[in-house]
């Protein structure tokens, strides 16, 4: 018979097993397939042929085309992350300082966008910035411009769409951090002679860095992996890395190349997450999401 | 002695709730003043107004004769020790203590010197490189104190600084805190709900209740000559008995208690205006002695017979609940004397000079 101690040790594993099985079947196993595929060869009719070839890796790693898009993907994700931080921080600060019912209401407002499909939200920009969209109509009506301006389908609108999509993640994470700061710390800094601005730089900002970093990692990873935003709001030259994967697998039926490209993106984003984990610990993200 | 802090008719309202009613207070330079009262009595609100963390709704606050109502907190030069210590978790202990000096244009060499001196004063000279989370609660408390005094504040404000500590540590810290305060001679305002702390540390105690001052006086005064029923009940254990007094204003006041008979209380023992015809006699529990019914009470003591109803053994002392006639009285006696069991018939006696009277 098992002792109580043994069964207590086993309990977490029993409870975790459904989740672990799901992750294994839906994440680890497919990932293994992708790794295997990346060494296989594509046949002329679009099928795959078992082999061990480094040709796909060589192509993906040496072709400047892939490298340039990887760099621009990282750049777009980085700009998006910085914009989210700059725009989101004051909002998070305001919510964290709000009291009682107000705070609940503001948090509800933050959740509201999640109730509408991300695709619909992204497409709404077409109605705002399109040639016959709201902004152009307004500018025409008040006579600022004579004919509609093409504002859509460039890198700026891609970033705009991403900021729109990712801002709540940044705000919620930063909010959690700010909310956890003991107000007495700011009072203490004040009483010791720091004015409100100095108090912010010396106390509030450094202590909110964990939340800011968690929000940044989420924004960066989700932003760099995005597929829909550049499709809807980007021009022909604004493809991001996930679009290449789609292109390779769906359009060209080149599974091995698609697998290689997926793994390249995974390595880059994985490196970002590991760096974050090294300094902050992944637990911080769980706080922000929970 | 000059006045360090003056509160002039200050009032604090939160919406329709009045936290502090018009309140006047003068705090002497270099003295240790305690605001004592149960939670919600307005003591912390008063402290926060002096600190500049709250604006008074009405009235003036003067520090060293200067009105500071409109002076923002970072320009007031006050040292505050918070209940939660409020050490900056992302800064080392050295950086924490040096924080206030950064905004006072102190040369670098002097910063080190002052921080070192402050840390030695709180007996933690070697923890400068550590972070607050690496220190125990008591050590964090000392560092919070060092950080507040290193800036040589005009007033030191302590907001229940000992309440988060263990009982034993708390008693050590209060002795040490008082020592440091005396050494520095800094005017100190201390907020607590713990009467033991208040009595042990203060030069003056302000007893507060529902946003009003009940009594201001030395620890001896508020303990032995409570000005109100509330003060008598809040500090220590007291017996309150309805009495009729005669001869108010004379040297002696004659009072009558049904169980103890007639006796006289010296008017010097009675705060002015309290010796009215009807009133309450305040008798501290430790001034009421129990003895065998046959024993002879000391001269001058008034006596009565009673029955011990409950015995509460406290180690160095015993607390008895005794039925005397219709009254249920408390007596705290030292263990050195004979112990009585529940149900025992005893004689209770006290010296009338140890009583005080409250007006009706």
TrEMBL record, chain A:
<dbReference type="InterPro" id="IPR000515">
    <property type="entry name" value="MetI-like"/>
</dbReference>
<comment type="similarity">
    <text>Belongs to the binding-protein-dependent transport system permease family. CysTW subfamily.</text>
</comment>
<protein>
    <submittedName>
        <fullName>ABC-type spermidine/putrescine transport system permease subunit I</fullName>
    </submittedName>
</protein>
<keyword id="KW-1133">Transmembrane helix</keyword>
<keyword id="KW-1003">Cell membrane</keyword>
<dbReference type="GO" id="GO:0005886">
    <property type="term" value="C:plasma membrane"/>
</dbReference>
<feature type="transmembrane region" description="Helical">
    <location>
        <begin position="157"/>
        <end position="176"/>
    </location>
</feature>
<dbReference type="GO" id="GO:0055085">
    <property type="term" value="P:transmembrane transport"/>
</dbReference>
<keyword id="KW-0813">Transport</keyword>
<feature type="transmembrane region" description="Helical">
    <location>
        <begin position="69"/>
        <end position="92"/>
    </location>
</feature>
<feature type="transmembrane region" description="Helical">
    <location>
        <begin position="126"/>
        <end position="145"/>
    </location>
</feature>
<feature type="transmembrane region" description="Helical">
    <location>
        <begin position="12"/>
        <end position="40"/>
    </location>
</feature>
<dbReference type="InterPro" id="IPR035906">
    <property type="entry name" value="MetI-like_sf"/>
</dbReference>
<feature type="domain" description="ABC transmembrane type-1">
    <location>
        <begin position="70"/>
        <end position="276"/>
    </location>
</feature>
<feature type="transmembrane region" description="Helical">
    <location>
        <begin position="255"/>
        <end position="276"/>
    </location>
</feature>
<keyword id="KW-0812">Transmembrane</keyword>
<feature type="transmembrane region" description="Helical">
    <location>
        <begin position="104"/>
        <end position="120"/>
    </location>
</feature>
<feature type="transmembrane region" description="Helical">
    <location>
        <begin position="212"/>
        <end position="234"/>
    </location>
</feature>
<keyword id="KW-0472">Membrane</keyword>
<dbReference type="Pfam" id="PF00528">
    <property type="entry name" value="BPD_transp_1"/>
</dbReference>
TrEMBL record, chain B:
<dbReference type="InterPro" id="IPR050093">
    <property type="entry name" value="ABC_SmlMolc_Importer"/>
</dbReference>
<dbReference type="GO" id="GO:0005524">
    <property type="term" value="F:ATP binding"/>
</dbReference>
<dbReference type="GO" id="GO:0022857">
    <property type="term" value="F:transmembrane transporter activity"/>
</dbReference>
<dbReference type="InterPro" id="IPR003593">
    <property type="entry name" value="AAA+_ATPase"/>
</dbReference>
<keyword id="KW-0813">Transport</keyword>
<keyword id="KW-0067">ATP-binding</keyword>
<dbReference type="Pfam" id="PF08402">
    <property type="entry name" value="TOBE_2"/>
</dbReference>
<dbReference type="GO" id="GO:0043190">
    <property type="term" value="C:ATP-binding cassette (ABC) transporter complex"/>
</dbReference>
<dbReference type="GO" id="GO:0016887">
    <property type="term" value="F:ATP hydrolysis activity"/>
</dbReference>
<dbReference type="InterPro" id="IPR012340">
    <property type="entry name" value="NA-bd_OB-fold"/>
</dbReference>
<dbReference type="InterPro" id="IPR027417">
    <property type="entry name" value="P-loop_NTPase"/>
</dbReference>
<dbReference type="Pfam" id="PF00005">
    <property type="entry name" value="ABC_tran"/>
</dbReference>
<dbReference type="InterPro" id="IPR003439">
    <property type="entry name" value="ABC_transporter-like_ATP-bd"/>
</dbReference>
<keyword id="KW-0547">Nucleotide-binding</keyword>
<dbReference type="InterPro" id="IPR017871">
    <property type="entry name" value="ABC_transporter-like_CS"/>
</dbReference>
<feature type="domain" description="ABC transporter">
    <location>
        <begin position="5"/>
        <end position="235"/>
    </location>
</feature>
<dbReference type="GO" id="GO:0015697">
    <property type="term" value="P:quaternary ammonium group transport"/>
</dbReference>
<protein>
    <submittedName>
        <fullName>Putative spermidine/putrescine transport system ATP-binding protein</fullName>
    </submittedName>
</protein>
<dbReference type="InterPro" id="IPR013611">
    <property type="entry name" value="Transp-assoc_OB_typ2"/>
</dbReference>
<comment type="similarity">
    <text>Belongs to the ABC transporter superfamily.</text>
</comment>
<dbReference type="InterPro" id="IPR008995">
    <property type="entry name" value="Mo/tungstate-bd_C_term_dom"/>
</dbReference>
């Amino acid at each position: 018979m098992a002792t109580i101690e043994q069964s207590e040790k086993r309990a977490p594993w029993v409870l975790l097993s459904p989740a672990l099985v799901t992750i294994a079947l839906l994440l680890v196993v497919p990932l293994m397939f992708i790794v295997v595929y990346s060494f296989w060869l594509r046949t002329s009719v679009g099928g795959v042929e078992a082999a061990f070839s480094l040709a796909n890796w060589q192509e993906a790693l040496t072709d400047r085309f892939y490298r340039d898009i990887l760099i621009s993907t990282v750049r777009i994700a980085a700009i998006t992350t910085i914009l989210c931080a700059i725009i989101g921080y004051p909002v998070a600060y305001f919510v964290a300082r709000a009291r009682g019912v107000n705070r609940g209401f503001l948090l509800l407002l933050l959740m509201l966008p999640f109730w509408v499909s991300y695709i619909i939200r992204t497409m709404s920009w077409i109605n705002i910035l399109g040639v016959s969209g709201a902004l152009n109509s307004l500018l025409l009506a008040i006579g600022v411009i004579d004919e509609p301006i093409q504002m859509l389908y460039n890198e700026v609108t891609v970033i705009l769409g991403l900021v729109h999509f990712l801002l709540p993640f940044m705000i919620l994470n930063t909010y959690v951090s700010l909310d956890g700061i003991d107000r007495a710390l700011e009072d203490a800094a004040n009483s010791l002679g720091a004015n409100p601005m100095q108090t912010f730089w010396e106390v509030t900002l450094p202590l909110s860095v964990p939340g800011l970093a968690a929000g940044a990692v989420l924004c960066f990873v989700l932003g760099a992996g995005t597929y829909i935003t550049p499709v809807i709001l980007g021009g022909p030259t604004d493809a991001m890395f996930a679009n290449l994967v789609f292109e390779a697998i769906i359009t060209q039926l080149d599974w091995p190349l698609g697998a290689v490209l997926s793994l390249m993106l995974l390595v880059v984003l994985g490196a970002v997450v590991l760096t974050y984990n090294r300094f902050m610990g992944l637990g911080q993200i769980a706080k922000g999401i929970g | 002695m000059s006045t360090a802090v003056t509160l002039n008719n200050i009032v604090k309202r939160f919406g329709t709730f009045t936290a502090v009613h018009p309140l006047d207070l003068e705090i002497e330079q270099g003295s240790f003043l305690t605001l004592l009262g149960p939670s919600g009595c307005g003591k912390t609100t008063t402290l926060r107004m002096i600190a500049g963390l709250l604006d008074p709704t009405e009235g003036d606050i003067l520090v060293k004769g200067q009105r500071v109502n409109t002076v923002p907190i970072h320009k007031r030069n006050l040292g505050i020790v918070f209940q939660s210590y409020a050490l900056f978790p992302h800064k080392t202990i050295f950086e924490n203590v040096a924080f206030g000096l950064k905004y006072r244009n102190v040369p670098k060499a002097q910063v080190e010197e002052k921080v070192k001196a402050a840390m030695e004063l709180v007996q933690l000279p070697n923890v400068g490189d550590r972070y607050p989370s690496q220190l125990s609660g008591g050590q964090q408390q000392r560092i919070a104190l060092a950080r507040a005094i290193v800036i040589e504040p005009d007033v030191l404000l302590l907001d229940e600084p000992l309440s988060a500590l263990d009982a034993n540590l708390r008693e050590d810290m209060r002795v040490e805190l008082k020592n440091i305060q005396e050494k520095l001679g800094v005017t100190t305002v201390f907020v607590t709900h713990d009467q033991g702390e208040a009595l042990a540390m203060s030069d003056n105690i302000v007893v507060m209740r529902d946003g009003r001052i009940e009594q201001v006086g030395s620890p001896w005064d508020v303990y032995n000559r409570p000005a109100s029923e509330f003060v008598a009940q809040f500090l220590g254990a007291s017996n309150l008995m309805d009495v009729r007094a005669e001869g108010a204003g004379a040297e002696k006041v004659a009072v009558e208690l049904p169980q103890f008979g007639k006796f006289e209380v010296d008017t010097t023992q009675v705060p002015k205006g309290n010796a009215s015809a009807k009133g309450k006699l305040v008798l501290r529990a430790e001034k009421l002695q129990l003895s065998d019914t046959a024993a002879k009470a000391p001269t001058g003591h008034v006596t009565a017979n009673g029955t011990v109803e409950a015995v509460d053994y406290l180690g160095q002392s015993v607390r008895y609940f005794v039925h005397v006639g219709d009254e249920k009285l408390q007596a705290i006696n030292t263990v050195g004397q004979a112990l009585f069991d529940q149900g025992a018939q005893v004689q209770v006696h006290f010296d009338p000079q140890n009583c005080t009277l409250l007006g009706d």
